[in-house]
């Protein structure tokens, strides 16, 4: 059972992605393309292609319709898309779309970016250990969803673990950060085999100094992310 830093790195090793390429992506303030791709899919499923096109055009991203990005993108692009989305739709509807997009992103990461042996092993481990391994893996690749922001993650406790994640200078912050919250909900619920509750006590878009999420096992109806 890998618990050392080397073991964690080995567990989540992804073929074809070098540390140099990752460092370059971070230095250029780039972010993973799924913030754009999955938001488009969530929009299309809820409102159809016409509304999706209008919002992408407003964000200056119409070129991605029918030709989605396959590599890291400028973090300003999903930021523009999230802004255009919130300007075009009522706040609650925009949050529904961003939540759906976040869950789709989490599903994509699990299916395509988490090695099969890690997908099989993590849900079988005690939640406290699985959470620590997952936080370590997320921290190593945090720029894929945090861009130029500064990510920190830690886990408190063993019997009832509490995960605390934060992003300072979060480039994709929106009120309540439904996209990020849904990404974290999907990842931890799937890979720790635990029904989780995600709470967002601090939000940069609401005037706090950073965005922070608390994730723990849910004991009742799960609050919206």
Topology overview:
Layout: H1 5-11, H2 19-27, E1 30-31, H3 34-47, H4 49-58, E2 73-74, H5 76-88, H6 91-112, H7 116-121, H8 127-140, H9 143-146, E3 150-156, E4 162-168, H10 178-191, E5 196-202, E6 211-217
Antiparallel strand pairs: 1-2, 3-4, 4-6, 5-6
Brief overview, please?
This protein has 225 residues and is of the alpha+beta class. It has 10 helices and 6 strands.
Verbal overview:
InterPro entries: BchJ (IPR010249), NO_sig/Golgi_transp_ligand-bd (IPR024096), V4R (IPR004096). There is one protein chain. By secondary structure, this protein is of the alpha+beta class. It has a single domain (5-217), classed as H-NOX domain, CATH 3.90.1520.10. Helix content is 50%, strand content 14%. It contains ten helices and six strands; from the N terminus they run H-H-E-H-H-E-H-H-H-H-H-E-E-H-E-E. The chain has helices at 5-11, 19-27, 34-47, 49-58, 76-88, 91-112, 116-121, 127-140, 143-146, 178-191; strands at 30-31, 73-74, 150-156, 162-168, 196-202, 211-217. The strands form two sheets. The protein has a four-stranded antiparallel β-sheet with strand order 3-4-6-5, covered by helices on one side. Strand 5 (196-202) and strand 6 form a beta hairpin. Helix 3 packs across helix 6 (91-112) and helix 6 (91-112) packs parallel to helix 10 (178-191). The chain starts with a helix and ends in an 8-residue tail after the last strand.
């Amino acid at each position: 059972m890998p618990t050392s830093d080397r073991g964690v790195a080995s567990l989540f090793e992804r073929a074809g992605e070098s540390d140099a390429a990752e460092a370059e992506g971070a230095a250029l303030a780039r972010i993973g393309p799924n913030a754009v791709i999955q938001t488009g899919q969530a929009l299309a499923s809820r409102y159809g292609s016409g509304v999706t096109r209008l919002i992408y055009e407003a964000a200056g991203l119409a070129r991605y319709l029918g030709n989605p990005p396959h590599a890291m993108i400028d973090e300003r692009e999903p930021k523009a898309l999230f802004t255009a989305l919130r300007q075009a739709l009522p706040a609650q509807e925009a949050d529904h779309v961003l939540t759906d997009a976040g869950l789709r992103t989490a599903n994509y990461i699990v299916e395509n970016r988490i090695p099969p042996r890690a997908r099989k092993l993590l849900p079988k481990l005690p939640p406290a250990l699985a959470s620590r391994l997952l936080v370590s893996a997320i921290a190593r690749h945090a720029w894929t969803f945090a861009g130029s922001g500064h990510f920190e993650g830690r886990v408190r406790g063993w019997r009832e673990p509490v995960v605390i994640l934060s992003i300072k200078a979060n480039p994709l912050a929106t009120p309540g950060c439904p996209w990020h919250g849904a990404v974290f909900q999907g990842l931890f619920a799937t890979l720790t085999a635990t029904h989780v509750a995600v709470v967002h006590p601090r939000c940069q878009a609401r005037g706090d100094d950073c965005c922070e999420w608390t994730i723990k096992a849910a004991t009742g109806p799960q609050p919206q992310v």
